[in-house]
Amino acid sequence: MEAGIVGLPNVGKSTLFNALTAAGALAANYPFATIEPNVGVVPIPDPRLAAINGHIETQKIIPAALRLVDIAGIVRGASQGEGLGNKFLSHIREVDAILHVVRCFEQTPGAEEVLHVEGSVDPMRDIGTIETELILADLQTVEGALPKAERAAKSKDPEAVLRAELLKQLFPLLNEGQPARMLQIEGKDLQRAFKSLGLITAKRVLYVMNVDEGDPLGEGPLASRVRAHAESEGMEAVPVCAKIEAELSELEGAERQEMLEALGFKEPALDKLARAAYHLLDLQSYYTAGPKEIRAWTIPVGCKAPQAAGVIHTDFERGFIRVEVYSVHDLEEFGSEKAIRDHGRMRTEGKEYVMHDADVCHFLFNI
Questions:
Q1: 154: exposed, middle or buried (C-beta count within 10 Å: 0-12, 13-18, 19+)?
Q2: Alpha-carbon distances, residue 82 vs 70, 92, 143, 349 (angstroms)
Q3: Across the chain, which distance is largest between two alpha carbons, in Å?
Q4: Which of 42, 45, 54, 216 is the most exposed place for a label (fewest CB within 10 A)?
Q5: Residue of 38, 42, 33, 47 lying closest to 64 (CA atoms)
Q6: SS3 state at 305
Q7: Is the pLDDT at 37 greater than 80, yes or no?
Q8: What are the residues facing 40 on neighbouring strands?
Q9: Considering only CA atoms, which of 253, 274, 207 is closest in space to residue 43?
Q10: Any bridge partners for residue 237, and if so which?
Q11: pLDDT category, 363, cuts 50, 70, 90?
Q12: CA proximity to 245, closest of 259, 230, 231, 225
Protein backbone atom coordinates (compact mmCIF):
# COMPACT_ATOMS: atom_id res chain seq x y z
CA MET A 1 0.00 0.00 0.00
CA GLU A 2 1.48 3.32 -1.08
CA ALA A 3 0.32 6.89 -0.46
CA GLY A 4 1.66 10.16 -1.81
CA ILE A 5 1.77 13.22 0.46
CA VAL A 6 0.83 16.36 -1.49
CA GLY A 7 0.21 19.97 -0.56
CA LEU A 8 1.24 23.55 -1.20
CA PRO A 9 4.66 24.67 0.08
CA ASN A 10 4.85 25.59 3.79
CA VAL A 11 1.73 23.69 4.90
CA GLY A 12 3.67 21.20 7.06
CA LYS A 13 3.93 18.41 4.48
CA SER A 14 7.59 17.56 5.03
CA THR A 15 7.27 17.95 8.83
CA LEU A 16 4.47 15.40 8.74
CA PHE A 17 6.48 13.02 6.54
CA ASN A 18 9.51 13.26 8.83
CA ALA A 19 7.35 12.69 11.94
CA LEU A 20 5.68 9.63 10.39
CA THR A 21 8.92 8.03 9.31
CA ALA A 22 10.70 8.83 12.59
CA ALA A 23 7.81 7.33 14.56
CA GLY A 24 8.04 4.21 12.42
CA ALA A 25 11.74 3.89 13.17
CA LEU A 26 11.06 3.97 16.92
CA ALA A 27 8.30 1.33 16.92
CA ALA A 28 9.50 -1.78 18.77
CA ASN A 29 9.83 -4.93 16.61
CA TYR A 30 8.49 -3.00 13.62
CA PRO A 31 10.55 -2.94 10.42
CA PHE A 32 11.33 0.48 9.03
CA ALA A 33 13.16 1.63 5.96
CA THR A 34 14.00 4.95 4.38
CA ILE A 35 14.17 3.89 0.76
CA GLU A 36 15.07 7.31 -0.68
CA PRO A 37 15.25 10.77 0.93
CA ASN A 38 11.57 11.29 0.11
CA VAL A 39 10.29 7.73 0.56
CA GLY A 40 9.66 5.88 3.81
CA VAL A 41 7.83 2.83 5.11
CA VAL A 42 5.86 3.04 8.37
CA PRO A 43 3.84 0.38 10.26
CA ILE A 44 0.05 0.37 10.52
CA PRO A 45 -0.68 0.40 14.29
CA ASP A 46 -2.54 -2.82 15.08
CA PRO A 47 -3.29 -3.95 18.68
CA ARG A 48 -4.43 -7.35 17.38
CA LEU A 49 -0.80 -8.31 16.78
CA ALA A 50 -0.12 -7.99 20.50
CA ALA A 51 -3.33 -9.91 21.24
CA ILE A 52 -2.11 -12.82 19.09
CA ASN A 53 1.34 -12.64 20.69
CA GLY A 54 -0.32 -12.93 24.10
CA HIS A 55 -1.22 -16.54 23.21
CA ILE A 56 1.40 -17.49 20.62
CA GLU A 57 5.11 -16.99 21.32
CA THR A 58 7.16 -15.78 18.39
CA GLN A 59 10.57 -14.39 17.44
CA LYS A 60 9.29 -11.28 15.68
CA ILE A 61 6.13 -9.32 14.89
CA ILE A 62 5.63 -7.76 11.46
CA PRO A 63 2.71 -5.34 11.00
CA ALA A 64 1.14 -4.21 7.76
CA ALA A 65 3.00 -1.24 6.31
CA LEU A 66 2.25 2.01 4.53
CA ARG A 67 4.78 3.23 1.98
CA LEU A 68 4.90 7.03 1.92
CA VAL A 69 6.14 9.21 -0.91
CA ASP A 70 6.74 12.88 -0.11
CA ILE A 71 5.78 14.55 -3.39
CA ALA A 72 7.52 17.85 -4.26
CA GLY A 73 5.45 20.88 -3.23
CA ILE A 74 2.81 21.70 -5.84
CA VAL A 75 2.23 25.34 -6.72
CA ARG A 76 -0.33 27.12 -8.86
CA GLY A 77 0.56 26.46 -12.52
CA ALA A 78 2.47 23.23 -11.78
CA SER A 79 0.61 21.40 -14.56
CA GLN A 80 2.00 24.01 -16.97
CA GLY A 81 5.57 23.67 -15.69
CA GLU A 82 5.59 26.16 -12.79
CA GLY A 83 7.77 25.27 -9.78
CA LEU A 84 9.04 21.74 -10.31
CA GLY A 85 6.36 21.35 -12.95
CA ASN A 86 5.59 17.84 -14.09
CA LYS A 87 8.41 16.31 -12.03
CA PHE A 88 5.85 15.35 -9.37
CA LEU A 89 3.60 13.52 -11.83
CA SER A 90 5.74 10.41 -12.28
CA HIS A 91 5.72 9.87 -8.50
CA ILE A 92 2.09 10.60 -7.80
CA ARG A 93 0.73 8.45 -10.63
CA GLU A 94 2.16 5.34 -8.98
CA VAL A 95 0.58 5.68 -5.52
CA ASP A 96 -2.67 4.07 -4.37
CA ALA A 97 -4.02 7.07 -2.47
CA ILE A 98 -3.27 10.74 -1.86
CA LEU A 99 -2.67 12.29 1.56
CA HIS A 100 -3.50 15.95 0.97
CA VAL A 101 -1.97 18.09 3.73
CA VAL A 102 -3.92 21.30 4.30
CA ARG A 103 -2.84 24.12 6.60
CA CYS A 104 -5.62 24.77 9.13
CA PHE A 105 -3.94 27.22 11.50
CA GLU A 106 -3.19 30.94 11.47
CA GLN A 107 0.20 32.34 12.34
CA THR A 108 0.80 32.05 16.11
CA PRO A 109 1.77 35.46 17.61
CA GLY A 110 5.41 35.47 18.71
CA ALA A 111 6.24 32.23 16.89
CA GLU A 112 8.70 31.94 14.02
CA GLU A 113 6.85 33.20 10.98
CA VAL A 114 5.83 30.56 8.45
CA LEU A 115 4.63 32.38 5.37
CA HIS A 116 1.84 30.87 3.31
CA VAL A 117 2.64 30.73 -0.37
CA GLU A 118 -0.64 32.54 -1.16
CA GLY A 119 -0.09 35.18 1.52
CA SER A 120 -3.08 34.12 3.67
CA VAL A 121 -4.56 30.96 5.20
CA ASP A 122 -7.60 29.55 3.40
CA PRO A 123 -7.77 25.73 3.38
CA MET A 124 -10.62 25.52 0.84
CA ARG A 125 -8.74 27.74 -1.61
CA ASP A 126 -5.64 25.58 -1.11
CA ILE A 127 -7.59 22.37 -1.73
CA GLY A 128 -8.99 23.94 -4.90
CA THR A 129 -5.51 24.95 -6.09
CA ILE A 130 -4.06 21.45 -5.70
CA GLU A 131 -7.09 19.72 -7.19
CA THR A 132 -7.15 22.09 -10.17
CA GLU A 133 -3.51 21.31 -10.96
CA LEU A 134 -4.13 17.56 -10.71
CA ILE A 135 -7.26 17.82 -12.90
CA LEU A 136 -5.34 19.83 -15.52
CA ALA A 137 -2.57 17.23 -15.51
CA ASP A 138 -5.15 14.46 -16.07
CA LEU A 139 -6.85 16.50 -18.79
CA GLN A 140 -3.54 16.70 -20.66
CA THR A 141 -3.15 12.92 -20.32
CA VAL A 142 -6.66 12.19 -21.59
CA GLU A 143 -6.46 14.74 -24.40
CA GLY A 144 -3.16 13.23 -25.59
CA ALA A 145 -4.39 9.62 -25.36
CA LEU A 146 -7.81 10.08 -26.99
CA PRO A 147 -6.79 10.27 -30.72
CA LYS A 148 -4.65 7.13 -30.44
CA ALA A 149 -7.42 5.32 -28.53
CA GLU A 150 -10.01 6.23 -31.18
CA ARG A 151 -7.78 4.87 -33.94
CA ALA A 152 -7.20 1.64 -31.99
CA ALA A 153 -10.95 1.26 -31.38
CA LYS A 154 -11.56 0.95 -35.14
CA SER A 155 -10.09 -2.55 -34.90
CA LYS A 156 -13.18 -3.50 -32.80
CA ASP A 157 -10.90 -4.97 -30.14
CA PRO A 158 -13.08 -4.94 -26.98
CA GLU A 159 -10.37 -3.50 -24.73
CA ALA A 160 -9.52 -0.77 -27.24
CA VAL A 161 -13.21 0.14 -27.63
CA LEU A 162 -13.63 0.25 -23.85
CA ARG A 163 -10.58 2.49 -23.42
CA ALA A 164 -11.76 4.91 -26.11
CA GLU A 165 -15.26 5.15 -24.58
CA LEU A 166 -13.81 5.85 -21.14
CA LEU A 167 -11.55 8.60 -22.46
CA LYS A 168 -14.49 10.19 -24.31
CA GLN A 169 -16.49 10.28 -21.07
CA LEU A 170 -13.57 11.59 -19.03
CA PHE A 171 -12.63 14.49 -21.31
CA PRO A 172 -15.75 16.64 -20.69
CA LEU A 173 -15.76 15.76 -16.99
CA LEU A 174 -12.18 16.91 -16.48
CA ASN A 175 -12.71 19.88 -18.79
CA GLU A 176 -15.49 21.04 -16.44
CA GLY A 177 -13.10 20.90 -13.47
CA GLN A 178 -14.35 17.61 -11.99
CA PRO A 179 -11.93 14.90 -10.80
CA ALA A 180 -11.89 11.56 -12.64
CA ARG A 181 -13.19 9.72 -9.54
CA MET A 182 -16.58 11.42 -10.11
CA LEU A 183 -17.16 9.23 -13.18
CA GLN A 184 -19.62 6.42 -12.43
CA ILE A 185 -17.85 3.13 -13.21
CA GLU A 186 -19.79 -0.13 -13.14
CA GLY A 187 -18.55 -3.62 -13.99
CA LYS A 188 -15.15 -5.23 -13.48
CA ASP A 189 -13.99 -4.71 -17.08
CA LEU A 190 -14.68 -0.98 -16.93
CA GLN A 191 -13.07 -0.67 -13.51
CA ARG A 192 -9.95 -2.48 -14.74
CA ALA A 193 -9.74 -0.28 -17.85
CA PHE A 194 -10.29 2.85 -15.74
CA LYS A 195 -7.50 1.90 -13.35
CA SER A 196 -5.12 1.21 -16.23
CA LEU A 197 -5.38 4.87 -17.32
CA GLY A 198 -3.33 5.87 -14.26
CA LEU A 199 -5.20 9.13 -13.67
CA ILE A 200 -4.19 11.10 -10.59
CA THR A 201 -7.68 12.36 -9.75
CA ALA A 202 -9.08 8.82 -9.88
CA LYS A 203 -7.30 8.14 -6.58
CA ARG A 204 -9.00 8.42 -3.21
CA VAL A 205 -7.97 11.32 -0.98
CA LEU A 206 -7.33 11.53 2.76
CA TYR A 207 -7.29 15.17 3.87
CA VAL A 208 -4.69 15.71 6.60
CA MET A 209 -5.66 18.84 8.51
CA ASN A 210 -2.46 20.34 9.93
CA VAL A 211 -3.86 22.08 13.00
CA ASP A 212 -2.48 24.35 15.70
CA GLU A 213 -1.26 23.11 19.09
CA GLY A 214 -4.31 24.78 20.65
CA ASP A 215 -6.71 22.78 18.46
CA PRO A 216 -5.27 19.23 18.28
CA LEU A 217 -8.69 17.63 17.60
CA GLY A 218 -9.38 19.92 14.66
CA GLU A 219 -12.55 21.48 16.09
CA GLY A 220 -11.81 25.02 14.90
CA PRO A 221 -13.54 26.70 11.92
CA LEU A 222 -10.73 26.08 9.40
CA ALA A 223 -10.52 22.33 10.08
CA SER A 224 -14.32 22.04 10.27
CA ARG A 225 -14.61 23.33 6.71
CA VAL A 226 -12.12 20.74 5.46
CA ARG A 227 -13.91 17.94 7.32
CA ALA A 228 -17.25 18.94 5.80
CA HIS A 229 -15.68 19.02 2.34
CA ALA A 230 -14.20 15.53 2.81
CA GLU A 231 -17.58 14.17 3.93
CA SER A 232 -19.29 15.68 0.88
CA GLU A 233 -16.84 13.80 -1.35
CA GLY A 234 -17.12 10.51 0.56
CA MET A 235 -13.48 10.88 1.61
CA GLU A 236 -11.88 11.09 5.06
CA ALA A 237 -10.17 13.84 7.06
CA VAL A 238 -7.82 13.49 10.03
CA PRO A 239 -6.57 16.34 12.27
CA VAL A 240 -2.82 16.26 12.95
CA CYS A 241 -0.63 18.85 14.63
CA ALA A 242 2.60 18.19 12.73
CA LYS A 243 4.59 20.15 15.33
CA ILE A 244 3.33 17.98 18.22
CA GLU A 245 3.81 14.77 16.24
CA ALA A 246 7.37 15.78 15.36
CA GLU A 247 8.12 16.23 19.09
CA LEU A 248 6.47 12.90 19.96
CA SER A 249 8.45 11.10 17.29
CA GLU A 250 11.70 12.05 19.04
CA LEU A 251 10.62 10.49 22.35
CA GLU A 252 10.55 6.87 23.45
CA GLY A 253 8.94 4.76 26.16
CA ALA A 254 7.87 6.53 29.34
CA GLU A 255 8.73 10.02 28.08
CA ARG A 256 6.53 9.54 25.03
CA GLN A 257 3.66 8.17 27.12
CA GLU A 258 4.01 11.05 29.60
CA MET A 259 3.69 13.62 26.81
CA LEU A 260 0.66 11.81 25.35
CA GLU A 261 -1.06 11.84 28.75
CA ALA A 262 -0.22 15.50 29.27
CA LEU A 263 -1.89 16.28 25.95
CA GLY A 264 -4.89 14.08 26.79
CA PHE A 265 -4.14 11.75 23.86
CA LYS A 266 -4.74 7.98 23.94
CA GLU A 267 -2.39 7.59 20.98
CA PRO A 268 -0.43 9.78 18.55
CA ALA A 269 -2.56 11.32 15.81
CA LEU A 270 -0.26 9.65 13.30
CA ASP A 271 -1.65 6.26 14.39
CA LYS A 272 -5.15 7.43 13.45
CA LEU A 273 -3.82 8.75 10.15
CA ALA A 274 -2.21 5.44 9.19
CA ARG A 275 -5.40 3.51 10.00
CA ALA A 276 -7.54 6.06 8.14
CA ALA A 277 -5.39 5.57 5.02
CA TYR A 278 -5.89 1.81 5.35
CA HIS A 279 -9.66 2.24 5.66
CA LEU A 280 -9.77 4.75 2.80
CA LEU A 281 -8.46 2.12 0.39
CA ASP A 282 -10.96 -0.56 1.56
CA LEU A 283 -8.17 -2.71 2.92
CA GLN A 284 -8.17 -5.20 5.77
CA SER A 285 -5.68 -7.48 7.51
CA TYR A 286 -5.40 -11.19 8.02
CA TYR A 287 -2.66 -12.85 10.03
CA THR A 288 -0.26 -15.76 10.00
CA ALA A 289 1.15 -16.79 13.37
CA GLY A 290 3.89 -19.18 14.43
CA PRO A 291 7.13 -19.47 16.40
CA LYS A 292 9.17 -17.60 13.77
CA GLU A 293 6.85 -14.65 13.19
CA ILE A 294 3.40 -13.17 13.67
CA ARG A 295 2.56 -11.12 10.61
CA ALA A 296 -0.24 -8.95 9.27
CA TRP A 297 -0.98 -9.23 5.56
CA THR A 298 -2.86 -6.56 3.60
CA ILE A 299 -5.74 -7.56 1.31
CA PRO A 300 -8.73 -5.77 -0.25
CA VAL A 301 -12.12 -6.15 1.39
CA GLY A 302 -13.92 -8.99 -0.45
CA CYS A 303 -10.71 -10.86 -1.31
CA LYS A 304 -11.04 -14.65 -1.65
CA ALA A 305 -8.74 -17.14 0.07
CA PRO A 306 -6.52 -18.09 -2.94
CA GLN A 307 -5.81 -14.41 -3.70
CA ALA A 308 -5.07 -13.77 -0.01
CA ALA A 309 -2.61 -16.66 -0.07
CA GLY A 310 -1.00 -15.15 -3.16
CA VAL A 311 -0.06 -12.06 -1.15
CA ILE A 312 2.40 -14.27 0.74
CA HIS A 313 3.72 -15.97 -2.40
CA THR A 314 2.34 -16.48 -5.90
CA ASP A 315 2.92 -20.24 -5.51
CA PHE A 316 0.44 -20.28 -2.62
CA GLU A 317 -2.29 -18.96 -4.91
CA ARG A 318 -1.34 -21.19 -7.83
CA GLY A 319 -1.33 -24.37 -5.75
CA PHE A 320 -4.05 -23.42 -3.25
CA ILE A 321 -5.92 -26.40 -1.78
CA ARG A 322 -7.66 -25.05 1.32
CA VAL A 323 -7.18 -22.81 4.33
CA GLU A 324 -7.57 -23.50 8.04
CA VAL A 325 -8.88 -20.33 9.62
CA TYR A 326 -10.03 -18.86 12.91
CA SER A 327 -10.41 -15.30 14.22
CA VAL A 328 -8.33 -13.27 16.65
CA HIS A 329 -11.46 -13.19 18.85
CA ASP A 330 -11.45 -17.02 18.89
CA LEU A 331 -7.85 -17.00 20.08
CA GLU A 332 -8.63 -14.53 22.85
CA GLU A 333 -11.67 -16.58 23.91
CA PHE A 334 -10.06 -20.04 23.94
CA GLY A 335 -6.38 -19.22 24.52
CA SER A 336 -4.69 -21.52 22.00
CA GLU A 337 -5.06 -23.02 18.54
CA LYS A 338 -5.47 -26.47 20.10
CA ALA A 339 -8.38 -25.26 22.24
CA ILE A 340 -9.94 -23.55 19.20
CA ARG A 341 -9.72 -26.84 17.30
CA ASP A 342 -11.09 -28.84 20.27
CA HIS A 343 -14.12 -26.54 20.46
CA GLY A 344 -14.82 -26.92 16.74
CA ARG A 345 -14.04 -23.30 15.91
CA MET A 346 -11.14 -24.05 13.54
CA ARG A 347 -12.77 -23.87 10.09
CA THR A 348 -11.59 -25.44 6.84
CA GLU A 349 -12.47 -23.29 3.83
CA GLY A 350 -12.01 -23.68 0.08
CA LYS A 351 -11.38 -21.50 -2.97
CA GLU A 352 -14.62 -19.52 -2.70
CA TYR A 353 -14.07 -18.42 0.90
CA VAL A 354 -14.25 -14.62 1.25
CA MET A 355 -11.69 -13.46 3.79
CA HIS A 356 -12.75 -11.59 6.92
CA ASP A 357 -10.86 -8.89 8.75
CA ALA A 358 -8.84 -10.42 11.65
CA ASP A 359 -8.76 -13.96 10.20
CA VAL A 360 -5.76 -16.03 11.32
CA CYS A 361 -4.80 -18.49 8.57
CA HIS A 362 -2.86 -21.66 7.79
CA PHE A 363 -2.79 -22.16 4.00
CA LEU A 364 -2.42 -25.61 2.47
CA PHE A 365 -1.09 -25.70 -1.08
CA ASN A 366 0.59 -28.04 -3.55
CA ILE A 367 2.70 -27.08 -6.55
A1: exposed
A2: 18, 17, 20, 55
A3: 68
A4: 54
A5: 42
A6: helix
A7: no
A8: 34, 68
A9: 274
A10: 207
A11: very high
A12: 259
